[in-house]
Amino acid sequence: MNFKPLYILLLLLIIVVKGHAQSELDTLYRPQFTAFPYPAYAQETSWEFGAVGIYQFKTANATFDTRPSNIYFIGFYTLENQMRFKLEHTLFTNHEDWVFEGSLEYSKYPEKYYGIGNNTPMENEQLMDWSKVEWRQQFLKKLSDKMFIGLQYRYVNFWDISVEKRADGTGSLEEIPGYKGGINSGLGLVYKWDKRDFVLAPTKGHFIEFRAESYGSWLGSDYSFSAFKLDMRKYFSLNKKKPYHTVVAFQGLLNQTYGDVPFRELSLMGGLVMMRGVYEGRFRDHHMMAFQGEVRQHLFWRIGATAFFSTAQVAPNWNAFLFDQFKFAGGAGLRLLINKDDRATLRADYGMGPDGSSGLYLTFGEAF
After folding, report:
1. Residue 247 is part of which domain span?
2. What are phi and psi of 155, to 5 degrees?
3. Does any domain span residue 265?
4. Cα–Cα distances in Å, from 126 out to 8, 61, 282?
5. Chain CA centroid to CA 336, Å
6. Cα(365)–Cα(345) distance, rounded to whole angstroms?
7. Domain assignment of residue 217, yes or no
8. Who wins on pLDDT, 32 or 236?
9. CATH of the domain at 229
10. What is the pTM of this model?
């Protein structure tokens, strides 16, 4: 079943243009810069060593109804000879009339590749190596309170792609879609309804983002394909009396790709965000459906704990999704609050996935 018409209809139904009330300037907010070196761990990287910096601030003449903007940098090198340097930003203008959100990244990233499909065997494992530069920028205009629509441009360039043969001597680079590397250049429509109280670690509200992207030669792309993504999140703040504040969070994710889709642009299951405990890209295909829930509990001082559960499935088309083919993962973790005003956190999660897979994740920020 093709869900694109439903997405477009949903988008048109929920866009309602409203004005906004004038508010007093927020003269009490003080910018904060946090930076530190860190060790981290994930099953995709082994141990990594790097530095994190985040600057949280409000733009000029911002009012109380304007959420803090942030600029975030991370750079690391891992024991798997991977390196990544990434600069992200989320900027809210006064009254949040405009939002500018984007990232710039360089990566050299050896990783394991298992082929395409929801049930690829472990014996398919191959070590792949690639380098990339990626730039993504969104320009969003406010429609109503915390509701935005706009455009996104995304540019990705892959090169130096190589792959080792499997343990049995089979497998070649030519079997992998997009093995030649090259440029993915795409323009898309973005709809975002963001009622979260905090961007980095929400405690209440909701977040909905829909993206429809087109990649083609008319934009200088070496590959012609389209991608559709729907990300829905909901947060409930329970038991607000200190010191035992509880947050319950849910996320649903739908990914669709059509056309000549390179291996890294397919829907990837796993990683430190969704399906923790599953190696990122362990299962990949043109479409993915994923859900997760999490309970976040404050314990004492700046320490918190969390428990999470997720399920996902990838498929070549929507008709191929089967109820008994969903994968399951779950686990628990700890949190350290490093900025009480804007709730920036460090997290340590241990997740367990299907077939005895597991992963430890030490990183910055909540999973969603």
Report:
1. 4-19+88-299+308-328
2. -130, 125
3. yes
4. 39, 53, 11
5. 21
6. 5
7. yes
8. 236
9. 2.40.160
10. 0.85
